[in-house]
Amino acid sequence: MSVKIICDHVVKKYGEAVIIPDLSLEIHEGEFFTLLGPSGCGKTTLLRMIAGFNSIEGGEIRFNDTVINSLSPAKRNIGMVFQNYAIFPHMNVKKNVAFGLTNRHVPPEEIEKRVAKMLATVRIEALQDRMPERLSGGQQQRVALARAIVIEPNVLLMDEPLSNLDAKLRVEMRNAIKEIQKSVNITTVYVTHDQEEAMAVSDRIAIMKEGIIQQTGAPREIYKRPANVFVATFIGHSTVMSGVLRKTELDLGGWTVNLDNLSPGTGVSVENESETALPGETAVKVSIRPEEFYLSDDVEGLHGEIGGSVFLGFYSQNFVKLDNGSDAEFVVDHKSMEREFKPGDRVTLKADIEKINVFDETGTRNLLTAA
Questions:
Q1: Residue 67 maps to which CATH number?
Q2: Is 139 helix (H, G, I), strand (E, B) or coil?
Q3: Rounded Cα distance, 139 and 93, in Å
Q4: Which of 53, 141, 190, 330 satisfies CB 3.0 to 4.6 Å to 48 for a cystine?
Q5: Pick from 170, 151, 33: nearest CA to 99
Q6: Domain end (from 204, 229, 254)
Q7: Are residues 60 and 164 in the same domain?
């Protein structure tokens, strides 16, 4: 049975060092929820607190209505998949998968039935008699996943499970994990520092920095409307520049944003006019993703010089040193444009005003409405 996980003002300390100062979070029943952030942000610490491997110095963690702070890991009914797989080298695949059931004294006929079903679910039934040293990394990861799920846990916890795999196998396994998770409908908490991986597998993502959640939302929501400059630059690529927000009489939200002649006179809709509608001009930060830039032949725009270009098959990523001193990136879809840019080429860029993000001057709050 899947459960809802509630973290209520959770605190984690090591001596005087505060790792997680005050964290509240709700993970829905059956959800694939990812903790994402740079190394040292507290995501694995939080996962281990949910698992029961780390103590809790403040607040509560609940599975549904049950407080689990003082429960041992064995009593939390969790499945855990580690970065290094942690499968037993002296047992074949079938015995590895059956291990948790055997420890729980499940009747042998029930073990046989459940292991067979799980081996089929993760598509390794043909490998059941094989020893771990004869398995590939992806196959070992499937064994670890099967062993974690076969005990029918309330919660599945996964700590950087794909980091030891090569790039192609990571893509294959992340798709398999998502498919398997949905088929068993188990509440899953997944830790990674890989943005693309998080975007591909998650129902929702929590972006963490220094033990504090910066934003929680669906992948599309976080990508399109990041809560602050940190999220905008951590998820994907963004060019961040200073700009000016002006109050106008326009019908389109009543605002214009100007950035070195970037789309002058174009209206944008802000989230809360009472807080931002200051007389005259308001300094802001503007973030623009590579795909939000487009080439222009107009005199007005952001002028710069190509510094380099990377061919990535369907599209090319181009790096520009703008005349205002900023570095920018834009992408070219080869289906619509075959032009090849060389270092030193001059270009003029404009941006899609409906897709850019505008933050307050400190970069801590997005002024735009949700996408």
A1: 3.40.50.300
A2: helix
A3: 10
A4: 53
A5: 151
A6: 229
A7: yes
